[in-house]
Design brief:
Jelly Rolls, alpha+beta, 3 domains, 43% helix, Arc Repressor Mutant, subunit A
């Protein structure tokens, strides 16, 4: 019976490990590991992409249909084990890795939403060692965001992380699946009435957690389709637009000396004051407190 990769990891000692459910069907799992091995003779229940953050002097990786690699893994290298294929990996030195664990139907859903590919027609291909600069940049964005937000507190960054997960899904479909040629770029944006509806929805819900799914539902589109169409229409990704609007609302509220900054953070949809400060400074170059003092 296929085994959940996180159950395999749970049986192994580690210097440090953290898991974050980023999206429906996608989990990010960070590990700082002692030497060891994982064996799934009946296969994994999920797809697993293992990205190396540190050098490993000898890594032995075997995937049923992907062959075997025995050698050094450098930071930026990765292997990809599709669900259902028997797999084995052994590492002989302390290392740091980031694992993206995906339910098989996650890629089916992305394929359908992007190009109408029927569920069940996506075959993820195994990889035992390679490098991919685009995928590396996406993984680094995951890592940076989770490190800055703190594992376990990603409320305010959920929309951004959902966007990253969709990008990872599309990239895997384009380059590591047997339907790569079916993925095509979008060329059109949202219609004016759709833009108006979505922007009104965003403004009405800035103080709440906003998800791509909820915004896409306002105009009857899939999440991936909506994200591409929104960027075509607005020039920025949905999460960037939401961030800008929250900062602008915070600026308006900061002009009132009666409202504490902690309350402003919550009213604008930030997890807490420190999250507001981080995003506010990124957009304006100053902190909320300094901004208020300069008024």
């Amino acid at each position: 019976m296929p085994v959940d990769p996180l159950d395999l990891f749970a049986k192994k000692p580690a210097i440090a490990h953290h898991s974050i459910p980023i999206d429906s069907g996608l989990m990010v799992h960070y590990r700082h590991d002692l030497p060891g091995e994982l064996h799934a003779p009946q296969g994994l229940s999920h797809h697993m992409l293992t990205f190396f953050l540190s050098k490993n002097e000898r890594q032995v990786t075997q995937v049923d249909e992907g062959g075997e690699y025995d050698g050094v893994m450098e930071p930026g290298d990765f292997y990809l084990c599709p669900a259902g294929q028997s797999a084995f990996t052994r590492w002989q030195s302390v290392d740091k890795t980031l694992h993206i664990v995906l339910e098989p139907d996650f890629l089916d859903r992305v394929a359908f939403s992007v190009d109408g590919v029927n569920s069940g027609n996506v075959e993820l291909l195994p990889v035992v060692k390679t490098r991919d600069r685009k995928l590396e940049s996406l993984v680094q964005l995951f890592l940076t965001e989770t490190e800055q937000s703190g594992f376990g507190d990603i409320y305010g960054d959920k929309l951004y992380l959902e966007s990253l997960s969709s990008l990872v899904g599309v990239h895997l479909l384009r380059h590591y699946c047997n339907i790569a040629s079916a993925i095509r770029p979008y060329t059109a944006g949202l219609a004016p009435y759709q833009v108006k509806r979505v922007l009104e929805y965003i403004q009405a819900h800035l103080s709440q957690e906003l998800s791509l799914d909820a915004m896409a539902a306002q105009v009857g589109l899939s999440r991936s389709h909506f994200a591409h169409q929104f960027k075509q229409a607005m020039g920025v990704a949905p999460h960037q637009y939401v961030s800008q609007q929250r900062v602008e609302k915070a600026q308006r509220l900061l002009r009132s000396r009666q409202i504490p900054i902690t309350d402003i953070a919550l009213e604008c949809g930030f997890a807490n004051q420190s999250h507001l400060t981080k995003v506010f400074k990124k957009h304006t170059g100053t902190t909320p407190k300094a901004y208020r003092q300069q008024l």
